[in-house]
Design a protein that fits this description.
The structure is a single chain. The protein is mainly beta. The radius of gyration is 26 Å and the shape is globular. The strands form five sheets. The protein has a 22-stranded antiparallel barrel. Strands 3-8-9-6-7 form a five-stranded mixed beta sheet. The protein has a single domain, classed as Maltoporin, Chain A. The longest helix has 21 residues. It is built from nine helices and 36 strands. It is 9% helix and 48% strand.
Length: 800
């Protein structure tokens, strides 16, 4: 889809629609098991009992069983294998993003997808992605804070929905729906490891076994009263690191000196979901979750000859580690029932994410041999408190069905804090007069007292949502939402959707909507000093708020909201146990918030005089001003074949064709001459080509008696990881990854599974040796399927 226009996209959809219409009119739809084919959804519609094939906008439904039948136990990775428009990269050596990895929908920024938990807004991570990963500049929801054992299903709305749900829903909505069980339970034990041959540019291949992963998960349902429930889930994960670095030519003989791969992780998670009747028409409900995650990734290596090494501490050099302890808390409570004929839901939801940073196996060169090797590097804390009140009621107004009216209010308070680390993590010590030495902990300097912030804001939103069948075949829906933020002002968004069912087999659907995304508190107030690698050289880089003096002089202005216009046009075809959806879309975004270029002191004497007193060599800040147009087509086909003597076969073919184009970049208001560059080529190309333009997944699930087999093939189009010039670009290449799993049930309570992800040990194209002077980056970390190779796993499942 690269460089194709919306006209081509819509032509594709229209052609397919015409073919389907002809097929539909030629025959009546055969009877089908609606419960088996259609999954009831609550995302994207407030009308009751809508199935995924009856909605006015495309919704993917991923069940708990689908998530479970995967080698990965990470929710985000499992969703990326199931939803073609969702991508989950595995960045490395990019500081905290190694541990808190964001997901992208339709190639857009991770924070342009709204995440809901039980249809309520989920809190974001405290982390800001500030280094060279996809999603640079975003502060997104960490999907991996939800254990898969706690989930009943996941619904992915692939349509703009700001008018329905508020800020962030530009690309779509991911709704995580918790399990509701009053009895029974289950447990799974999964163990896996990478068995792979690593072929980097400088090696002929080295056989590697690493990344051992152990996951134990369980859930149990309990009855509360006559009809209530309490479902408790728990998960423990331990994962060893992986390393896919190339040989470092700076040492003799060349050897691996870095650690480029997945971080080491140990985490445990608890979740509880409950509901109990208060009266015949009212019930109380709520949930609570807590996760503690210790994660440790690596920075770039410091050789023995490095000016910032202290031979008395590390005679052979050292490899700094960036460790994060993430503590994630969520609490919710509410009541729902009927009041004066209105279905009413009132709830209060609290979420908090705290990240405590440590820099290990490091030193502060300005303290010499007296330097600590382990540092408390400070903390980031984000919290969100949301009050929601929603009412829904159908009205009989003489149409071919009821007019469904929904309205509601959402009031939100957010807070954001940065806490400084220990003084040795950021100070210049007794040797600080030597300007050749970098101050602070090597790899990840601590947050300084000047970085400390404690900010908050409030937001209030009101919405009205209408949906009704105008005729027996034609349904329309509309929504309007007003938002008022205490820090940037107001926004009004709207949405109009329609669907026409020609018969039981064929329908057309479409929508047009406006959207917005408010600047996050993280983007407005994050400030730090970090060791950023530019062209193989470590540069101490300061991140400054847009309203700071430094940023203003360099060209920053106060942040404003992003705005968007979304268009979709789709078709739904179903015939017996076969269904097919085709949805074309265009998303126009204005004033997207991005992180600027790293403006180096070497740009001009004026920039040097501005940065030198601050002890940094480069500066960056958040700014508005990037406009993009995203065009694409989603195709999802599904067929179920049931037989009495050969088992059941479930086939899915899904594809996403996506093209992102940057149509405008920020212009600077800097008073400096020459004007520093705000947004350069590598940032533009990351937005345009940092995610695959084509992703096609074919999946087959076969079950027969006590046996089951899953086969999956996923094709990923080429992804570019841009450098500062075209000559320093490298890419992943077009790749297809095959996954297999076999299952056997010796009895009704036990399931045994053996599987392999990436069975043929596929890798992205290696980073060329000429572009990898230190050997750190063995493969592009923009790769949409990672760069770890073949993963073999076994799983034992129990149910009772």
């Amino acid at each position: 889809m690269k460089s194709q226009s919306l006209r081509t996209t819509l032509a594709f959809a229209a052609s397919a629609t015409a073919l389907l219409a002809g097929a539909a009119s030629a025959q009546d739809a055969a009877p089908q098991d609606a419960a088996a084919v259609d999954d009831v959804v609550v995302t994207g519609t407030r009308a009751p009992n809508r199935s995924r094939l009856d909605t006015l906008a495309p919704v993917d439904v991923v069940t708990a069983e689908t998530i479970q039948n995967r080698g990965t136990t990470e929710l985000a990775a499992a969703l990326a294998q199931s939803v073609p428009s969702l991508t989950f990269q595995r960045p490395s050596v990019v500081d905290g993003t190694d541990s808190i990895r964001p997901a992208t929908l339709r190639g857009l920024s991770p924070d342009q997808t709204l995440v809901l938990l039980n249809s309520t807004r989920r809190h974001a991570s405290a982390l800001v992605n500030v280094n060279g990963s996809v999603g640079r500049g975003s502060a997104a929801v960490d999907l991996n804070t939800i254990p898969t054992a706690a989930l009943n299903q996941v619904e992915v709305l692939r349509d703009g929905a700001s008018a329905q749900y508020g800020s962030d829903a530009i690309a779509g909505v991911i709704n995580l729906r918790l399990r509701e069980a009053d009895h029974g339970g289950g447990a799974t034990f999964t163990a896996g490891q990478y068995f792979t041959s690593v072929n980097t540019a400088r090696t002929g291949g080295r056989d590697t076994e690493d990344g051992q992963t152990l996951t134990a998960a369980a859930w149990q349902g309990f009855g509360l009263g006559e009809d209530g429930f309490l479902t408790v889930s728990a998960e423990y994960l331990q994962r060893d690191p992986t390393n896919r670095s190339d040989l470092d030519p700076r040492v003799t003989p060349p050897a691996v000196t870095a650690r480029f791969g997945d971080p080491e992780v140990e985490q445990w998670t608890l979740f509880a979901n409950a509901g109990i009747d208060l009266s015949p028409t009212w019930e109380a409900y709520g949930w609570a979750g807590y996760q503690d995650r210790d994660s440790e990734g690596a920075a770039f290596p410091r050789l023995a000859s490095n000016v910032n090494n202290v031979a008395a501490i590390y005679p052979n050099g050292f490899l700094p580690k960036i460790a994060i302890n993430s503590q994630d808390l969520s609490l919710a409570g509410g009541v729902r029932g009927e009041a004066a004929g209105w279905a009413t839901d009132i709830n209060l939801v609290y979420g908090r994410n705290a990240l405590d940073f440590r820099t290990e196996d490091s030193l502060n060169a300005t303290y010499g041999a007296d330097s600590p090797t382990s540092f408390d590097s400070g903390s980031l804390i984000y919290s969100q408190l949301v009050f929601g009140a929603d009412v829904t009621r159908p009205f009989e107004v003489g149409l071919y069905g009821p007019l469904n009216v929904a309205a509601g209010l959402e009031a939100r308070q957010e807070t954001y804090e940065i806490e400084a680390g220990q003084p040795e993590s950021y100070n210049r010590g007794p040797l600080g007069g030597n300007t050749a030495l970098a101050g602070g902990a090597q790899g990840f300097p601590g947050f300084q007292p000047s970085n400390e912030v404690d900010e908050d804001r409030t937001a209030v939103g009101l919405y009205l949502d209408l949906e009704a069948p105008v005729t027996e075949q034609f349904t329309i829906a509309g929504a309007v939402r007003f938002e008022d933020y205490s820090d940037f002002g107001t926004s009004t968004t709207g949405k109009l959707s329609a669907r026409y069912d020609f018969n039981d087999a064929f329908a057309l659907r479409g929508s047009i909507s406006t959207g917005f995304r408010a600047p996050s508190l993280q983007q407005s107030f994050f400030t730090s000093t970090a060791s950023v690698v530019q062209d193989g050289v470590v540069v101490e880089t300061g991140t400054f708020p847009a309203t700071s003096v430094v940023a203003s002089v360099l060209g920053a202005e106060p942040l404003d909201a992003e705005t968007s216009v979304n268009y979709t046009l789709g078709a739904v075809f179903r015939l017996g146990d076969f269904d097919l959806t085709i949805d074309a879309y265009q998303i126009d975004i204005e004033d997207q918030i991005v992180l600027s270029e790293n403006i180096n002191r070497s740009f001009s004497p004026q920039v040097a005089s501005l940065l030198d007193p601050l002890g940094v060599q480069a500066a960056r800040f958040f700014l508005n001003g990037v406009d993009t147009t995203t065009q694409g087509v989603d195709v999802v086909g599904h067929y179920r074949l049931r037989t009495e003597d050969q088992g059941d076969l479930d086939l899915t073919l899904a594809a996403n064709f996506n093209d992102v184009e940057v149509t405008r970049i920020p212009t600077s208001s800097s008073v400096l001459n020459p004007v520093p560059p705000l947004f350069g080529r590598s940032r533009i190309e990351t937005i345009q080509q940092g995610t695959p333009d084509t992703k096609v997944s074919a999946n087959a699930d076969w079950t027969y008696n006590r046996w089951g087999v899953t086969w999956r093939a996923t094709y990923y189009g080429d992804v570019l990881q841009p450098g500062s010039t075209p000559a320093s670009d490298y890419s992943t290449g077009d790749k297809t990854v095959f996954d297999f799993e076999g299952r056997f049930q010796p009895n009704d309570r036990v399931t045994l599974a053996l599987g392999v992800d990436n069975a043929f040990d596929e890798y992205p194209d290696a980073v060329p040796a000429a572009l990898n002077s230190n050997g750190v980056l063995g493969f592009p970390f923009y790769s949409p399927f990672g760069f770890n190779g073949r993963f073999i796993y076994a799983r034992v499942g129990l149910n009772w």
